[in-house]
Structure formats: C-alpha cells, structure tokens
Write a structure and sequence with these properties.
Elements (H helix, E strand, L loop, with lengths): L1 H15 L28 H6 L8 H33 L9 H17 L3 H14 L7 H10 L4 H14 L2 H13 L6 H11 L6 E4 L2 H13 L6 E4 L6 H9 L12 H9 L6 E4 L4 H4 L7 E3 L2 E4 L5 H14 L21 H10 L5 H15 L3
Parallel strand pairs: 1-2, 1-3
Antiparallel strand pairs: 3-5, 4-5
Helix pairs in contact: 1-15, 3-4, 3-5, 4-5, 5-6, 6-7, 7-8, 9-10, 14-15, 15-16
Length: about 375
C-alpha cells in the first residue's frame, strides 16, 4: 500500500500544480494599483498654480506647463509599469518568492525614482505603495504605506499590504480590522471564505500550516481568528521575506534559516531545522517546493501532511470524512473566476479515497464520480 501512496502522490502533484491561482494573488480582480469604486477630485500642481490669481501665467506658459506635466506623468507611468511588470514576473516564479540580488537592486532603484518624480496625489499614493511593496513586507517602510492610505483609505493594494504589515508585526487587532475592511470592499472573493474553512479544517491540531500567496494566507488567517480555539499556526512563505515576521516566529519557538532568499531550499531548511513540528502544506504551494518531501507527504483534505505518521486506514477515514463534509467552494454565490481553479485542489483528496478504499461497489464509485463532477462545475 505504501507503493500506492507514492503513485497517488505523483498523480496529486500533477493535479494541484495545475490549480494554482496567480502567484502574486494579492487582489482578486488583478487591478492591484488602481483606485476602484471611488471618485475623488484632486488638483495637481499645475491646477493649483492656475487658481492663484496673482500668478496667472500667459497662454504660452500654460501650454508649456501642460506639456511638462504630461511628460512627467508619462515618465511616472512608464517607470511604474516597468516596476510592476518585473515584480509580477518575480512573484510568478514557481520555485522562489524572492528576487535575486541584482533584481532587488534594480527594483529598489525604480521605486526610489518613482518617489522622486511623483507629482500628483494619485502618483504619490502609488509611489508610496510601490516603495513599501519593494521592501518585501519590511515594517520599517510602514510610514510610506500609511501615508498612501491616508490619501486613499480604500486603495485595494494599500489595504492588501496593510494586512500583510499587520501580520508581520503580530498586531492581531489590526489584522482583523484590515481583513474585515478588505473583505467588505469585495477585494476578497466570498468563495475564498468557503475554501479557507475547508483548508483550516484539513489541518490537524498542533500542526503548522504553510501557505503561499496572499489570498490563501489571508482567508485562512481570517478563519483562524474566527475560531480562536484552533491550535494551529499559519506561516506564509511570502511573508517570510520580512525580518519582523521572522523575529515574530522566533518568539513563537520556531528556528528560522538565516538565508535571505525564500525559495525551495529555504522551505526545505525551515522544515528540517524544526523537527519537533508537524507541518501541513497548502495545495496552493507550487509542486517545485514539495517534491523534496514526496516520500513523506500524505493528502489530507486540502493539504499535504508532513511527516506522515498515519496508517492507511487513518488516511482513508480522514479523507472520507472530508469528502462528505467539504463545501467544494459552493457558498451559494457565483464562483469568482479568479479563484475557480482552486476547486482542482480537492482532487487529491478524492483520488486518495478512490485509491485506498476497499469498497469498490457501484455505489461507492458513483459517490466518487459525483465529487469529481462537482469540482469540474463552474458555479
């Protein structure tokens, strides 16, 4: 039966590697740095000058000022787009959450330039948010983030980063407040709540859940805070780039690898230097991270458990329970397309039951097939 589990793991890897949401999964609608749902009238520097009756420039001067402003705006937009494109490419890396030293230096030069050329309030908001973003959740850059949110309290990416900053500093009150606002403004799909409930329920007591991006982390944290009796810890691979987050985990009793780059090797080291801990890997984690543990992983609902201390009977019993009790992201609302692929993460659980069950009756096969059909449905 051990051989069956190894074969099963290979099949599971193939399924859940196809089910990844965008690696940068910061805000579900993909428009990370745009104001949405708000209309704010702001005056730029040229407009303010024109309002001063004592300093009304001549027509030629106005045209020159306008052309200068357009050039500055174009330069800002070009630099901001270049930064965001580079950052998105880095976050889509399936084997690392961190930029290389050269990439990091280039990105830092870019956000420093943006801070210098930002003129209008909207540019200043974006420059401050990108400056914090480039710090990889270093809370020392929080003042820039707070300034951006002062100018636009509902900025989607600003709120996303506020949740992250609250998590890395361990401010539970601010985490809850920011998450509530984040969700109230529809920046987190409702279906993620159902997914997170199934995800957290997949994690045994006294186990550490490792998550990957923003949405899986935030929704799981929100579910954990709603159930204060739960005895699990949640660690985000993405947030591990933050020095404050690492310090927080040290205080909680974890040993933290010293290397700054968070990648496949880093995860392996983190697991190995904490041998007294039990871990559960969210199936949102790319398979590149998990193949190093493949002989000791076992599917359990929406996670892979490590190390595997369970018998085949225990594995089957747990997954059969999940098979019947999970929501399969059916929250009674239309499934958001941005996270619909996560339904495929239920497949390893179904395959586990199918492989380990000794009940090969027509009725049992029918139940399994209905579950497979359910995760293929687009609701």
């Amino acid at each position: 039966m051990k051989k069956n589990l190894l074969i099963l793991f290979g099949v599971c890897i193939a399924f859940f590697s196809l089910a990844q949401p965008p690696q940068s999964n910061s805000v579900s609608n993909g428009n990370l740095f745009n104001n949405q749902g708000t209309t704010t009238l702001v005056l730029d520097s040229v407009q303010l000058q024109l309002m001063d009756k004592d300093q009304i420039p001549a027509a030629d001067d106005v045209e020159e000022l306008h052309e200068s402003e357009v050039r500055q705006q174009n330069n800002f937009k070009k630099e901001a787009d270049t930064y965001k494109s580079s950052k998105a490419r880095i976050k889509s890396n399936s084997s690392s959450r961190s930029a290389s030293a050269a990439e990091d230096m280039q990105l830092q030069q870019s956000v420093t330039k943006l801070k210098g050329v930002a003129q209008t309030p909207s540019e200043q908001i974006e420059a401050n948010i990108l400056y914090y973003d480039q710090g990889n959740y270093n809370a020392d850059r929080a003042p820039q983030l707070m300034e951006a949110l002062r100018l636009n309290p509902n900025h989607p990416e600003g709120l996303n980063l506020l949740v992250a900053n609250s998590l890395v500093t361990g401010d539970t009150t601010k985490v809850l407040s920011a998450l509530q606002k984040f969700k109230a403004l529809n920046y987190m799909p409702e279906s993620m709540t159902c997914y997170a409930r199934d995800l957290v329920n997949s994690v045994p007591n006294n186990t550490t859940l490792i998550t990957h991006g923003a949405l899986d982390t935030y929704s799981a944290i929100q579910q954990q805070l709603a159930l204060p009796s739960t005895s699990i810890d949640i660690i985000s691979l993405d947030l591990l780039q933050s020095p404050q987050y690492r310090a927080l985990l040290l205080k909680k009793g974890y040993t933290i690898p010293v290397q700054s780059i968070v990648d496949v090797t880093y995860l392996g080291d983190l697991i190995r230097v904490n041998p007294s801990k039990n871990f559960a890997f969210s199936m949102t984690i790319p398979s590149d991270y998990l193949v190093q543990f493949e002989q000791e992983l076992v599917p359990n609902g929406l996670v892979f458990l490590y190390p595997n201390h369970w018998s085949n009977e225990q594995i089957l019993q747990a997954n059969e329970h999940f098979l019947d009790s999970f929501s399969y992201m059916d929250c009674g609302v239309e499934l958001d397309e941005s996270v619909a692929a996560l339904k495929q993460n239920y497949m390893p659980m179904i395959l586990t039951v199918e492989t380990l069950s000794t009940d090969k009756s027509k009725e049992k096969r029918s139940v399994i097939e209905r579950k497979k059909i359910k995760i293929k449905q687009k609701k």
